[in-house]
Structures are given as C-alpha cells and as structure tokens.
Design a protein that fits this description.
27% strand; two-stranded antiparallel sheet; Alpha-Beta Plaits; globular; alpha+beta
C-alpha cells in the first residue's frame, strides 16, 4: 500500500447541544486516536451566534491542526464517524442545532471540489466562528484564492464571536 506524505490539515469544530464545550474537548481528544494522524494544535474555545436559524442556542467553536497521512476523503469520513459517536444527525434543517460539527477546512495546499468535499472549505472567508479560532493556531495560513487567515479575520464582525473564559460553564 502506498503511504501518503504527511499533510497539515485544519478542522473547524462546533457544537450547540448537550454540553457544547465538553463535546469539543472530547472530539479533540478523539482526534488523537485517528489512524496515521496527530493533533498538533488546538485553539481556545469561542462562543458565536448561530448561522442560519436564529432560534437555537449559541455555538461553541474551535479549530484544530492535524498532521495526517490520510487522504482528504478518508480523513473526512473519519471525522464523520466521530460526529456520529457524538449523536450527530443530518436529518434536521441546514445550519440547525447539532451536538458536533467537524468541518475539514484546509488540507495542505489541496484544492478540490467533489459532491462530498470542497477544499478549501468555501465558507472560510466570511465565517468569524472559523477565522477567529483558526487565527489562534495558524494566522499566516494562506487560504488559496483568499489570502491569509489573519487578513480574513480582520474583515469579520467582531461582535458575533467572543472568546470563552476557561472557568466559565457553557
């Protein structure tokens, strides 16, 4: 079997149900169990207003950096297994409440568009709940076609997101 060279990938994490901060912390711990993958950085947690449906709790968000030898779709499927273990369902409204949402944001310099996966994630440039945590761990990361994470973050509305204090309860 051909072994892929290690790639730096970034994942966005979000939850607004069933103890969101605990959901994210557990998911980060589960990243360490992924085959041929190593968690190398995780952002602090942020609270953000929901995208789409406003009649739902605020989200808790974070970002993680992984070094992986898994191909993009294999990594995506591994992330989806973690979501399901957390009770994630995909039968509700788009952008509705969820126990865990794991988005593969960036996979090295890979640009791809398939029915299942688009890289880099198309929502990155306008989502403060992605850019603030991502800027904590990779401010100089270049999102192909859009510029650096830090430059994109500077254009976001700072009022839609707030850093969670470590001692607070969701």
């Amino acid at each position: 079997m051909h072994m892929l060279a290690p790639v730096l990938a970034y994942v966005g994490l979000g939850s607004n149900l069933d103890g969101p901060a605990a959901q994210l912390r557990l998911a980060l711990a589960e990243f360490t169990e992924l085959q041929d993958t190593r968690l190398v950085a995780a952002s602090p947690l942020y609270r953000s207003v929901p995208l789409g449906l406003s009649d739902q709790p605020d989200y808790i968000n974070a970002a993680a950096a992984l070094v992986t030898r898994l191909a993009p779709l294999v990594l995506l499927h591994a992330l989806q297994v973690i979501e399901v273990r957390h009770g994630r369902r995909r039968d509700g409204p788009r952008w509705g409440p969820r126990t865990l949402d794991l988005d593969l944001l960036v996979y090295g310099q890979t640009c791809m568009q398939t029915p299942e996966l688009t890289l880099p994630h198309p929502g990155i440039p306008e989502r403060s709940f992605v850019l603030y945590p991502l800027a904590d761990i990779a401010p100089g990361l270049v999102i192909p076609g859009h510029g650096t994470v830090e430059a994109l973050r500077e254009r976001c509305d700072p009022h839609s997101i707030a850093a969670l204090r470590e001692m607070t309860h969701e």
